[in-house]
Amino acid sequence: MKDTAFCALDDGYIEYRKYTVPHNMPVQHYHDSYEVYFLISGTRNHFIGGEYFGMNAGDIMLVKPFELHYSTSSEKFQYTRYVLNIKKHELMPIFTAEEIEKLFDVFKYRILHLNDDNQLELFDLFRRADKAKQANNFLSSKLFKAATAEILLFLQNIPSKKKVTASPAPAGDIIKAVRYINDRYRENITLDDVTSHLHMSKYHFCRVFKQFTGATFLEYLNNLRLTEAHQLILYTKKSINEIATATGFNSTSHLTRVFKSVYGISPRGFRKKQIIKERDTKF
Predict the structure, then answer these.
(1) Run of H or E including 133
(2) pLDDT tens for residues 193-220?
(3) CB atoms < 10 A from the CB of 46, how many?
(4) CA 115 – CA 121 distance, rounded (Å)
(5) Mean pLDDT of 152-175
(6) To the nearest 5 percent, what fractions of the chain are helix, strand and coil?
(7) What torsion do the CA atoms of 65, 89, 121, 126 make, to the nearest 10 degrees?
(8) With b meaning 16 or more CB within 10 Å and e meaning fewer, what string describes 162-188?
């Protein structure tokens, strides 16, 4: 089983799901797109960006590209949700760059709370976007993107919108550990470094860390390094060796081995594939 998952969601993505049995994500994952997670009913626990959030019905979680996240069932495990993923450039044919930046400004927030009226109105907007996506006609792509923009605009205009702080984590020491790793993942840190910092036994730390983050210490460390390596491969001209050094991998071979285990392709092959994809898109 993979330690993390990269979900490449092109041309927009929307999904409605209802769960009637406990459901924990199998692994941490991330996207190269923005995500709007709408919890319609039930409760859900989310670990994202080194913080823990308990979500209730009517809550919106906003996720930026390349943010690792992982969710688990709560005691009330039955839940219903909508998920929407979109990239900025996918709205370019319809909206100006300035308009798109204003729409995506809502992602400076993490969790938004909706009242009952807001929930009903947003659910209708999601259904409209979903219907447009499934229509599969000559206008469906444009209608989906227009509906997506309407969702983002709706979230921008929620009167009671405010930044929401993270929930108190059931295991506060684990959040401290995550922040410690987040600050030092580019360095040669070890499990001993983390447990010594927390004054915690390795056995207890490993058990609780996996429970709340969905990853072992080494998996989480590599996941952080991979998300940055992914961005550097895509958006810079740094050599693979420079990227390996900049992201905490000991060598190019180390980065290649870990990268290939997740993506099924070497970093060089991945970069070449993206260059070809961009070239073909232009024509």
Answers:
(1) helix 116-135
(2) 999 999 999 999 999 999 888 899 999 9
(3) 24
(4) 10
(5) 72
(6) 50, 20, 30
(7) -80
(8) eebebeebebebbbbbbebbeebbeee
